[in-house]
Amino acid sequence: MAFWNFWKTKKIGIESTSDIRIIETVRGIDNIESAKKENKHLLYRKVEPFSVCTGKYCKLRNNLTRIPFKVYDFRDSRTWSDKYSIITDWTYSYYNYDFPDEAAYIIPNDIKEDEIVFVKDLIENYIGYSHNQGTESRLSGYEAIWKNNDLVILYNPEINSVRAVG
User: Domain segments of the chain: what residues?
Assistant: First the structure.
């Protein structure tokens, strides 16, 4: 993802931009019912369970002091030193996103075919960031296009996901 262009053209977190409209998301049955009462045009999406790897670690113990601690980098030399014992070998920690089972996008009544919009709170699950040592994060918002009465997220994992190495 080319941040230098992305940040110049989009004002993430701001309610309006001069370039594109913001699509809001309603989550939870009560919020959806409120939006229906206000005659909002809702586009429902299935909410899928999603968890991301938040990191990896290895638990070690100092053989002299007996004090346990964690290391988070495969390259940490203490993991193969005789001064330390492995208590828990390399493992991963995860974060489970806990969204309500019901969700919908609020679509403007005057949206036009092929209009590009920004979805502030994606219902679909996409990886926005990944690191070769195990960390990932969920993409919270992204561009979409209105096509054939549907919102098509313009996400391409090969281009739009940051992949860090190091």
Answer: 3-47+99-164, 54-94
Q: Compute the Cα dihedral for 105, 111, 116, 120 and give only its sign.
A: negative
| Three-state DSSP string of 78-124 | HHHCCCEEEEEEEEEEEEEECCCCEEEEEECCCCCCCCEEEECCCCC
Rounded to whole angstroms, the Cα distance separating 128 from 6 reads: 13
* Predicted model pTM: 0.70
Closest of 57, 49, 77, 17 to residue 138, by C-alpha: 49
Q: Which residue in 29, 6, 9, 7 sits closest to 20, CA to CA?
A: 9
- pLDDT tens, position by position, 93-127: 888 888 888 999 999 999 999 999 999 999 998 88
Q: Whole-angstrom Cα distance, residue 138 to residue 157?
A: 12
